[in-house]
What does this fold into?
Amino acid sequence: MIHALIDLYQAGGPLLRLRQAEELAKAMLELFFDPRDGGFYAVGVDHEALIVRRKDTDDNATPSGIAGHGALLRLARLLDRPDYWQKARLSLLGMAEAMVEVPQMHGRLLCAGLLPGDAAEIVLAGEPDDPKYQALRAEVVRRFLPNVVLASTNGRNIETLPLPEGKAAGGGAALAYVCSNYACRKPTSDPAELATMLDLLAP
It folds into this structure.
């Protein structure tokens, strides 16, 4: 559900979707996270007492419970939350041996493990109904960029998220900012130039 809410926001949905993802992540950590060894328990702290409070670590018809840290990695970059990074890293380290020995059972964990590498953040600044903004956005969404998070700003939501802070359309023209760990290249309003930058991020 957290992944879905992030996807809705990045697909052009309201900021509310990202805030809902943040609230779900907070509840997930409070109820299920193991602060000592990382990972997520199958039942919450509010569950009746059990002899063993186990963790689901294998992907089956649905992703394993421990794969929830993949959502933490995405939120960490969108919201600048180093504590989410640390919790996700603890989970990955705790499952490293299992991922090597039985990779076919840990697809979601392996995907999440790739997220920190060559990661990038993209901010689109401008009005969503502006054709120039739409042309920039089209260059982003037509690609498979699993290591990229996308945020948007029209100048009115700039104070509500850390990622778009300080990024605005230039003289009314839509701009795209391509960043890595919040360090950004020179913004561009040219879809072709943006395409060249994005091609370097493709897996």
Residues 2-114 form one domain. The radius of gyration is 18 Å.
